[in-house]
């Protein structure tokens, strides 16, 4: 197949212990999927249906490293999250079948221009530009579910310059991984290569140029970025 411009490179994530990469098709994110984070953001902590937003697939930063502080913000926030990578898909996937679609898991940071998000919310406008900017989705190497299993619990944490800012447990998610996949597949047809950021515990906050952000999930791995 011929194209009129050079083909953009395909975003991909390394897989722990393997040479082949995981190709990224789409990035989906779940909003306020931990009750304590919903409270700190002024939302309802009860078990309401999950809501979703997206990021461009080339916003992924495989393995972390240096991240350019984005323009048009003075309030950039971190959010440590479990990332689910799909090796299967479909539409209207039953929750009891959803985990069969999972290829593996990783640690991710959902970077957010919080001031822009608040501004757009106040005006009733969409807030993609607060979430879907360049380098807004750092992700660690994937651990295949065939090796790891499907973690339903485990510590999730984040520190800034060595000071812990977030600490929670995957068991605190309002909607677990299988339920997230089931709900999301009622909106769109999921496919191999999709990744899902599954929400963050409380303790989100601002970071500035020069900050070193480290996060991890028990049994999965760690991720580090530096704001430049």
UniProtKB/TrEMBL annotation:
Ranges of residues in domain Fumarylacetoacetase-like C-terminal: 27-224
Highest taxon in the source lineage: Bacteria
Keyword Isomerase tagged: no
Protein keywords: Metal-binding
SUPFAM superfamilies assigned: FAH
Pfam families referenced in this protein's UniProt entry, alphabetically: FAA_hydrolase
Name of the protein: Fumarylacetoacetase
Classification lineage: Bacteria, Pseudomonadati, Acidobacteriota, Holophagae, Holophagales
């Amino acid at each position: 197949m011929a194209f009129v411009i050079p083909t953009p490179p395909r975003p991909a994530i390394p897989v722990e212990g393997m040479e082949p990469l995981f190709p990224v098709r789409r990035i989906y994110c779940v909003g306020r999927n931990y009750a304590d984070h919903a409270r700190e953001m002024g939302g309802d902590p009860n078990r309401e249906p999950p809501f979703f937003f997206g990021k461009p697939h080339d916003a992924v930063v495989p393995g972390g490293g240096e991240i350019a502080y984005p323009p048009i913000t003075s309030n950039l926030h971190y959010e440590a999250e479990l990332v689910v990578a799909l090796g299967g898909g479909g539409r209207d996937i039953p929750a009891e079948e959803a985990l069969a679609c999972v290829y593996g898991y990783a640690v991710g940071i959902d970077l957010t221009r919080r001031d822009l998000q608040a501004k757009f919310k106040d005006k009733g406008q969409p807030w993609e530009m607060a979430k879907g900017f360049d380098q807004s989705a750092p992700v660690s190497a994937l651990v295949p579910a065939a090796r790891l299993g499907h973690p339903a619990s485990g510590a999730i944490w984040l520190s800034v310059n060595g000071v812990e800012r977030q600490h929670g447990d995957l068991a605190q998610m309002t909607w677990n991984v299988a339920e997230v996949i089931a709900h999301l597949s009622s909106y769109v047809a999921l496919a191999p290569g999709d990744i899902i950021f599954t929400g963050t515990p409380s303790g989100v906050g601002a970071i500035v140029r020069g900050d070193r952000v480290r996060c991890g999930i028990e049994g999965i791995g760690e991720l580090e970025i530096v704001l430049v």
